[in-house]
């Protein structure tokens, strides 16, 4: 099942290291079949507030998402971004093609009744 690296990036401080990070990140993703799905476009907020921008990277599975993040190659460039961009990074497992939100609702109902 696909997994995702999701980053919510807020305050960015322009710095040459950010450009270096962008130039080097794809090489860290390739061994893990990671690919950008969303990479920092302007967002259209239709409910609530959204300060900043987002990045979404897809991996074939959670094991490869974790392996990418923990890889020496990614760890070597992580500070280039983290020192200059405030944000959060999450690794999230996706849902399969047969996902049915009604099943999730039933599970939540059962849990709240217990």
What's a concise summary of this model?
The chain is α+β, with helices and mostly antiparallel strands and 114 residues long. The protein has helices spanning 16-29, 62-70, 72-82, 101-113; strands at residues 3-12, 35-39, 53-59, 85-93. α1 (16-29) runs antiparallel to α3 (72-82).
How do the strands and helices of this protein lay out in sequence?
Layout: E1 3-12, H1 16-29, E2 35-39, E3 53-59, H2 62-70, H3 72-82, E4 85-93, H4 101-113
Antiparallel strand pairs: 1-3, 1-4, 2-3
Outline the structure in words.
The protein is built from four helices and four strands. The chain is an alpha+beta fold. Strands 2-3-1-4 form a four-stranded antiparallel sheet. Helix 1 packs antiparallel against helix 3 (about 70-80). The longest helix has 14 residues, at about 15-30. The chain starts with a strand and ends with a helix. The model has no long low-confidence stretch (mean pLDDT about 95).
Using brief descriptors, characterize the structure shown:
single chain, 114 residues, alpha+beta, 4-stranded antiparallel β-sheet, 4 helices, 27% strand, globular
Number of strands: 4
Estimated radius of gyration: 17 Å
* Distance, first to last CA: 30 Å
* Structure class: alpha+beta
**Biggest sheet layout:** 4 strands, antiparallel
* Average predicted confidence as pLDDT: 95
Low-confidence stretches: none
Q: Widest sheet: strand order? A: 2-3-1-4
Helix content: 40-55%
What fraction of the residues are assigned to beta strands by DSSP? 25-35%
Number of helices: 4
Q: Would you list the SSEs in sequence order as H and E?
A: EHEEHHEH
Shape: globular
């Amino acid at each position: 099942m696909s997994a995702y690296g999701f980053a919510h990036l807020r305050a960015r401080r322009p710095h040459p290291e950010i450009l270096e990070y962008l130039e080097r990140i794809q090489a860290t993703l390739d061994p893990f079949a990671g690919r950008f799905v969303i990479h920092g476009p302007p967002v259209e907020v239709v409910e609530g507030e959204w300060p900043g921008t987002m990045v979404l990277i897809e991996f074939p599975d959670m094991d490869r998402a974790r392996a990418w993040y923990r890889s020496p190659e990614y760890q070597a460039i992580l500070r280039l971004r983290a020192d200059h961009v405030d944000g959060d990074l999450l690794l999230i497992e996706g849902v399969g093609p047969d996902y049915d939100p009604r099943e999730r609702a039933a599970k939540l109902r059962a849990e709240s009744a217990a």
